[in-house]
Specification:
Hypothetical protein af1432, Alpha-Beta Plaits, 6-stranded mixed beta sheet, 18 strands
């Protein structure tokens, strides 16, 4: 006879469970149009397991909890089963969903020959998962409470409440149930974790196998180890988010600190130098549902302060009091809702505590290197302990592990890309794993010897998370955002290189470093970088329309993204390339916020022809592009201004020779009058057909960027400098070369 855990594993692969998993439109509640039944069920399971495990750790026995003589492991599996099935009847409609759920669940359990004692237990939890169904045993009460916590303010009656008196009345039975189960002491913890200095670990050297391997190690830890530790200790359902080096989990209070210790120790053990920081918070029932006090709309409206008090209020809710609230239709009536009250507020506060912990960290892994010892030929920091025959190098243990893993036949994100092409595009990539470039020289060999390091990140995603009301919505949002960014990234690659072109390539002209929760790190041969970045931003805006619509914010048609990009020689240290790209990204994000109306996608970049050790893009811009009272560039650009330049660059190709292009760029650096006279004189000497086309292009650009009718310079009051779009345009033409 199969164990209950084996049966649950088979059920999770069944058509019934998989259909619910795939169906994002099957909602947990018709009134809440964004949380799928699957998200709600998985989260109910995770919370229920955490609740149950806390009681077991406090000394409760399985018999005390469910009234049956079964093992603790079977009890945990039974509560997972009940959580997955408690709302299964909603697939046939929301009316009478409990009786429908019981019917479907009974048929399912009988189909899998579940023992009678387990079947009775699971069905009893499903039957009494609402407070008004009078749950009797602790098992039933745990499922009832987990269902309520997973829903939080999705419950219409709680969402409507305006006063504290209303909130206390509506939540009274559940608050009493929470206190009864935990005997007056909070029993749940939320853990938030994030890898420290992740880029310093990944880009410690410029060797592609080591960069690739470091990324693989961190992804193994974040995507495989975390799932494993939660499956072994509790349930994978307790891990409600993990991507890009970060995770969020709901766990029993009794083991939260030990779990944090185990996770932090294991990360350091596996990486040798990379650490992870974790923080935890133990919410009561109201905090889990409504964030931090004050909870009521009326009380929030009355908040006042002076000096630092006013600053604290504004930092939490914003300066514009009218923007603290929104009107939401609940059950056909409009109610005033505070935007930042709910589970997202807890996550925001935890994020602050996490940043504080990172800043105050007093332990940094350090390996002493003796003066007489041989240093690692790769990182140059640690003592060499391994010999790499293929490269004739002595390297340290940490670089050795990165390098060995980076040589693997299946690299996670490249494999995901291959699977995505097969599944979505119905095409095959031939031997793509064998086409991974061994180094940046191989990646750029046929494309001018320059690569682009691209760092892309969603704009103001943190502020969106602050408005998330429930854990189920958070899980749903995180999953939807990751899907959008992954699809956008893969689509942008195929917009840049077709499957046919990739299959013809000897070596790939790109390297996928990381796809995070809302960010991307990517290396690509320089000529393709502008086209790829443009495609990525456009795809991301298109692919986030659906999840943006769920927030019902005026003007929020989609989410936006910013890109920081450095174009540099293959020999340039990737460590500095990443730092500069990050700095460029920050300036692009400022541009994204600066525009009137909603956030815009933005791009910022620098073309670095010299190997300068720098980390600040501003310093490079000032030394490269600013001369007295002129600036040769107008970047960062918002997406559609940059797309305009890209279109113009294609129209301009063939009209300006390489030598003329370099002369024009040199002339611009000599000042306004000299450059204008020289450029217009040179254009007038061209063939009339080419000359007319170029004058029309200049006229188009002048109109687009609000210059005089035919001019390449404009005085910018804010910067107190003259600016030109022409240098940016010429750089794009130069970098793209003959590839487009």
């Amino acid at each position: 006879m199969n164990s209950l855990r084996d049966i649950l594993s088979v059920f999770k692969k069944s058509d019934l469970f998989q259909r619910i998993k795939r169906d994002d439109y099957l909602l947990a509640d018709t009134i809440i149009p964004y949380v799928s039944l699957y998200d709600h069920s998985i989260l109910t399971s995770g919370i229920a397991v955490a609740l149950l495990k806390e009681l077991l750790l406090r000394g409760k026995k399985a018999n005390n909890i469910c009234g049956k003589n079964i093992s603790e492991d079977d009890l945990i599996v039974a509560i997972q089963f009940a959580s997955y099935l408690h709302d299964i009847g909603k697939k046939n409609g929301y009316k009478n969903h409990i009786s429908n759920s019981l019917k479907i669940s009974k048929e399912t359990l009988e189909k899998y020959n579940v023992e009678e004692r387990y079947k009775e237990l699971i069905l009893s939890g499903i039957e009494r998962h609402h407070i008004n169904n009078n749950p009797q045993t602790l098992f039933q009460k745990i499922i009832c409470l987990a269902n309520s916590l997973a829903s939080g303010t999705d419950r219409p009656e709680l969402a409507k409440a305006q006063t504290m008196q209303e909130i206390l009345h509506i939540t009274e039975e559940y608050r009493l149930l929470f206190d009864e189960i935990f005997e007056g002491e909070n029993g749940l913890s939320i853990i938030l974790g994030d890898v420290d200095q992740v880029h310093a670990y990944v880009f410690e050297t410029s060797r592609l196998p080591e960069i690739r391997g470091a990324s693989e190690i961190l992804n193994e830890l974040n995507l495989d180890f975390l799932k494993k530790i939660f499956r072994n200790e509790l349930s994978g359902d307790c891990l409600i988010y993990n991507a890009g080096g970060s995770f969020t989990a709901i766990v029993p209070k009794k083991i939260s600190e030990r779990l944090i210790g185990d996770i932090e120790d294991y990360y350091l053990k596996q990486t040798g130098t990379a650490t992870i920081s974790c923080v935890t918070f133990e919410p009561d029932y109201l905090q889990f549902c409504l964030g931090n006090s004050p909870y009521a709309i009326d009380d929030i409206s009355k908040l006042k302060g002076e000096g630092i008090g006013e600053w604290l209020i504004e930092s939490q809710f914003g300066k514009d009091r009218a923007n603290w609230f929104k009107i939401e239709d609940i059950g056909g009536q409009n109610y005033r809702i505070c935007k930042k009250k709910g589970f997202g507020e807890l996550l925001s506060n935890l994020s602050f505590e996490l940043r504080k912990k990172k800043d105050m960290k007093n332990f940094v892994p350090f390996y002493e290197s003796f003066p007489i010892g041989r240093r690692c030929d790769s990182c140059g920091k640690r003592m060499a302990s391994n010999f790499d025959e293929t490269r004739d190098e002595y390297i340290c243990n940490i670089c050795h592990r990165k390098r060995e893993l980076g040589k693997g036949e299946r690299i996670r994100f490249l494999s995901k890309f291959e699977e995505w092409v097969q599944k979505i595009k119905r095409e095959s990539l031939n031997n793509i794993s064998l086409k991974m470039p061994k180094d940046l020289d191989a990646l750029t060999k046929n494309f001018g010897g320059y690569f682009s390091f691209i760092y892309a990140d969603g704009n103001e995603i943190g502020s969106i998370i602050e408005e998330i009301r429930t854990p189920a919505q958070y899980r749903h949002f995180a999953k939807g955002l990751y899907k959008a960014i992954k699809n956008s990234f893969f689509e942008a690659i195929l917009d840049t290189f077709s499957v046919k072109e990739i299959n013809k390539m000897e070596k790939l002209p790109f390297e996928i470093i990381n796809i995070g929760g809302d960010d991307i790190s990517f290396i690509i041969a320089a000529p393709f970088s502008f086209k790829f970045s443009l495609n990525l931003l456009k795809r991301f805006e298109e692919n986030t329309k659906e999840i943006a619509a769920e927030f019902k914010k005026e003007g929020l048609k989609n989410f936006t993204m910013s890109v920081g990009m450095i174009i540099c020689k293959a020999k340039y240290p990737v460590y500095y390339a990443e730092k500069i790209a990050e700095s460029l990204l920050k300036e692009a994000k400022k541009k994204a916020k600066k525009n009137v109306g909603y956030l815009k996608s933005a791009i910022n970049y620098i073309y670095l022809t010299q190997e300068i050790a720098a980390e600040s893009s501003k310093e490079l811009f000032d030394s490269y592009y600013v001369i007295n009272d002129i600036s040769l560039i107008m970047r960062p650009y918002i997406l559609y201004d940059f797309e305009f330049l890209m279109i113009i660059s294609k129209d301009s190709k063939g009209l300006i020779s390489t030598s003329q292009l370099n002369l024009f760029m040199e002339a611009l650096s000599k000042g306004r009058k000299v450059s204008s006279n020289f450029i217009f004189y040179q254009i007038s000497r061209m063939k009339k057909e080419d000359s007319d086309k170029l004058f029309k292009i200049i006229e188009k650009c002048s109109k687009k960027f609000n210059f005089n009718k035919i001019d390449v310079w404009k005085f910018d009051i804010e910067q107190a400098k003259y600016l030109t779009y022409l240098y940016d345009l010429l750089e794009i033409i130069k970098i793209e070369g003959d590839y487009f």
